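Hey, quick one: can you model this chain's 3D structure?
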Amino acid sequence: MDLVKALSSQYMKEELPEVKVGDTVRVHVRIKEGSRERIQVFEGTVIARKHGGISEAITVRRISYGVGCEKVFPLHSPNVAMIETVRKGKVRRAKLYYLRDRVGKAAKVKERV
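Sure thing. Here's the predicted structure for all 113 residues.
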């Protein structure tokens, strides 16, 4: 095993949730404000999943007050406390960037039963 894999393997999380593109997820993020720390929840649709290994990340999009908001969450980051799946999505694409142009019911993803 080379040096990079040995160093990165100790920082990787053992259990990753089953998150796929199209799923609606609730990401619990640790927010540090001064000396205090709290957990903030970001709920939205996974539109992309990138890379692999220690640098694996998901892009989550939601519409907030009529404005689209996207955040990229590294899956192995210590700031990501937990990722829970709200509903499974049925999609035929690896990246759902077309949702950026859609608003309202047109931006919905069908649910996988």
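One thing worth noting: Strands lie at 24-33, 36-50, 57-64, 67-74, 80-87.
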